[in-house]
Amino acid sequence: QLQLQESGPGLVKPSETLSLTCTVSGGSISTSGYDWGWIRQPPGKGLEWIGTSLYSGNTYYNPALKSRVTMSVDTSKNQFSLKLSSVTAADTAVYYCARRPVGYGVDVWGQGTTVTVSS
Amino acid sequence: DIQMTQSPSTLSASVGDRVTITCRASQSISSWLAWYQQKPGKAPKLLIYKASSLESGVPSRFSGSESGTEFTLTISSLQPDDFATYYCQQYNSYSVGFTFGPGTRVDIK
After folding, report:
1. Is the CB of B89 less than 8 angstroms away from the CB of A47?
2. At residue A56, does pLDDT exceed 80?
């Protein structure tokens, strides 16, 4: 069964870059028909889609975050990653990595990792 | 951008009640809508995709429907395990993004 696991620093200073990695196990990130994305949830608030990487290599970002987000896929390591630059306290959230079969909803979620932006 | 709204924001109900949550899109998204259930401290769980298709393993008391840009999640007979927050998400187009609704919390009456 496919599993996703987020990893990265739990504390990031304001103005710095948040970097997270999602490791895929139990399946290949190169399998066609799926996209791989990041979703976040600030404390006590709702879900926010950050962006998606397709198996084809294309990436799409939330327009509100586009200027600060970079996502990439490393097929050799079966991982995908998120970088969010110039962070502020508003970027404090639980960050989830996720798999979505094309045409479906997100069917596999990581457990989530809490990232706090604070000096 | 496609905006998603949900109503109500909070719903108080009893076990056995029929519960309906509505999600509206600001423009046409065809049937590209999913519903999720989230419990505190946990990742969301997919319930419904493509507006009305039940995800494998999800109890049949959950159902989804659509009418234009209005989508509905119905729980036919609320069970104790169903007290949670429910989110809709549109996934009509990669280029404009996959927006979530603000959520509906279902709590015990």
Report:
1. yes
2. no
Q: Which residues pair with A12 in a beta bridge?
A: A117
Tell me the C-alpha distance between A53 and A35, whole Å: 6
Phi, psi of A10 (to 5 degrees): -90, -10
Contacts of A52 in chain B (CB under 8 A): 94, 98
Question: In the predicted model, what is the mean pLDDT of chain A?
Answer: 96
Q: Which of A96, A103, A105 is the closest to B43 by Cβ?
A: A96
Q: How far apart are CA A19 and CA B72, in angstroms?
A: 37
Q: What pLDDT sits at residue B96?
A: 83
Q: Is B43 on the interface with A (CB under 8 A)?
A: yes
Q: Which among B76, B103, B90, B77 has a CA at the least distance from the CA of B11? A: B103
Q: Do B103 and A105 touch (CB under 8 A)?
A: no
